[in-house]
What does this fold into?
Amino acid sequence: MTPFGQRLRALREAHGVSQAALAEALHVSPAYLSALEHGHRGRPSAGLIHQVNEFFGLIWDDAEEMARLARLSHPRVVLDTAGLSPEATALANRLAREIRKLPPEVIQMLTRVLDGGASTALPGPRPGPAPRHK
It folds into this structure.
């Protein structure tokens, strides 16, 4: 499931709307909506996000949050490690192979590291800023 799919399902269930009814209102097939909720489809289009926001009456911050979740919701990510270190390329490949095996707490820890919370997520000293090249 993707972040957008998870939020869409939560909105639908909170409003007591079936997949079929929402699909009809959005002019998409129930199969497409199911695949979108389960992360079997790519990112939704800007138009579909707008339709979802209108259907559920989402405005301002809530509407922007749906757009943000959609940007984070491509289920088949491609990483370009060209020009990066061999270690970065190896890490990207290993993560691609093993992400399904990682327990939720490890995923949360990695997310904190990437969000800049390395000092609380990892033991040892926090790495300093990357050196600047002129």
Notes: The longest helix spans residues 86-98. The radius of gyration is 19 Å. Residues 31 and 114 are 34 Å apart (CA to CA).
